[in-house]
Each structure stands twice: as structure tokens, then as C-alpha cells.
Design a protein that fits this description.
Layout: E1 19-23, E2 27-36, E3 39-49, H1 67-79, E4 87-92, E5 97-104, H2 111-122, E6 133-143, E7 147-156, H3 157-169, E8 173-179, H4 180-188, E9 198-204, E10 208-215, E11 218-226, H5 230-248, E12 256-263, H6 277-290, E13 294-296, H7 318-324
Parallel strand pairs: 1-4, 4-8, 9-12, 12-13
Antiparallel strand pairs: 1-2, 2-3, 5-7, 6-7, 9-10, 10-11
Length: about 325
Amino acid sequence: MTSILARVRGAFAPPGVTAALEISATHVSVATVEWERAGPRLTHHARRPLPDGALTPHLTSDNIRDRDAVVAAVRNVLDQLPKRPAQVGLAVPDSVAKVSFVQLEQVPARRADLHRLVAWQVKKAVPFRMEEAQMAYTSGAPHGERGRQFVVTLVRRDIVQAYESVCADAGVHAGVVDLTSFNLINTVLTAPTDDDADWLFMYLAPEYCTLAILRGEHLIFFRNRPASEDAMLTDLVYQTAMYYEDHLARNGARGLTRSVLVDATSAAAQGTSAPSADGGRIRRMLEERLHTRVNDVWSDPGLRWGTEIAPSMISSLAAPVGLLLRGRVATH
């Protein structure tokens, strides 16, 4: 059964999944990846913009507004691959899901007991009935001597099914469904890094922004907010950094060792290859606020994107790539 997989690092893409899609408010993209001796390599890709208003990501209301347009875009990008896949992975907007953290002092031995406990813990934080929800959770950072933090993702079941049915109408089965930012993070994690260090991830989409803090590969903070003005964004990033210092930082640790930005608001991310002055300005504002360098997703991971791909186009390919690279780590 297809589910939202609330995990930042997991198994490699399921058997049969050789291509992955991203469906967003602005575009549909597809990517295929090969893992070679030197690391992962993007082999094929395609992108199709969506008409304004065709898809509106939301937690509690219908997302697909122009079904024919979205189905046509999915079909178009799949037709550009050398071989049409029967099954794909699917990355959907962060704002369709509620991401929560549950800290357990002791983890139940039986999976059924753990499931009931996690569901009970998050029930009050969900703006829809649990009976309507599709829930997934993954083991996160250690908590105390014997406990564990769990990252929990809930999405309304009918919303997931709407995305799956769009794929089905385009002639392909969505074998796994996951959030865009989780798989952007997967892409970053392909690069060798300090496994235990804390770092900041930022994703800017035209309609929302997501901020996440990771401890190595474990997600310890996640916040999704509607799109805002640049000044408000930098304030939100600063508030997140201060929250980290006050509540999440460990004694003796180095703090946030790096910051990674994926900017999908640039002109290139919307379908052109022109460089984005706004993207550079936002990055400089964030660097001034954080007092540290902010890396780009195309310069941070160990993935070979290919010289034919404009760096600013990678923001619409990194999520499907990350979905295909789940659990794979570069060693070069």
C-alpha cells in the first residue's frame, strides 16, 4: 500500500521504482538516476510547467483544481524518458502534510503498541479526524538513555489518493509517496559529511517555505509556513536558529555547522535558464542573518548533475533524485 514515508534516510527506492516524479504547484518534473562507482549520476530528466491555479497544495482541502492539466503534464514528462516506467516514486508539496515529533522515554517492543501510542500522541495536533488520516512515522534521534524521538507525518487520505490517481490516469503507478523537502534532504545527504553534526536546511517554494534542522541524518526540527516577504523569511530563519540555540543545541557541540538552501522561486525554477538576481539577494540576506555561508543544493551534495543542466534548474529535479537515492551515501 502506498503511504507517505516520513523519513529522511531509509531503504533504497523500492524494487521497480526506476524514475521519480515531483508534482508541485508550478511544475511536474521527472528524473532517473544511476549509481556508479564514482557516485550517483542523473541520467534523464524532464520538466513541464503547470498553468496557474491548476494545483494548490493545502492540508485540509482539495489540491488538484485542473485535473486534465496536471495529468497532461505528468504524461508529457514521462513520455520524454527513453523508456516509460510502470511505477514511479512521487514527491508532493510539504504543505499537504502535518509533520510532528513524538518523544518516548521507552519504545514499546510490539509494533502495534508503538503505532497506537504514536497516534494517541499526535491526535490533538491534527486539524482533521484521525480516521481520515494516513499516518507514517520513522525512528529519529535518541532521546534519553532508552528513549527515541519519532518523526510523524499525517496527511488526509483523500489528498494522497488524488495525487496517486493523477499518476494512474497518466498511465503510471505511484509506488511510494513522500514529501518534497524530505527528499531534497536525501539529496544533500548523498554527500560525505560529519554524521553527527547539526545543520540547517531551507526550502523556498513559490507558495511556502520549509525550515528543517538535522542532527546528522536525523530530523529534529521541521516547520512549514506559507510564502512570505523576504524580510519575514529572514526573521523566521533567525527565530529558528534562536530556537535551536535555546532548546535543541547540545552542550559542547559546534552548533549549526552548515546551512543549505534550495530556492525554487527563481526564474529558472519556473522554466527558464536565466540566472536569478532575487535568488542571490535572498541568499545574501540569509547569510547576514545567520552569520554563516549558505550552500546551494547543486554545490553541496556529491551528485553529478551533468554539465548540460543549469544549476538553477536543479531545484526542480533534486526532490525526485533524492527519492531515488534514499539511503545511498556517497563515499568519494
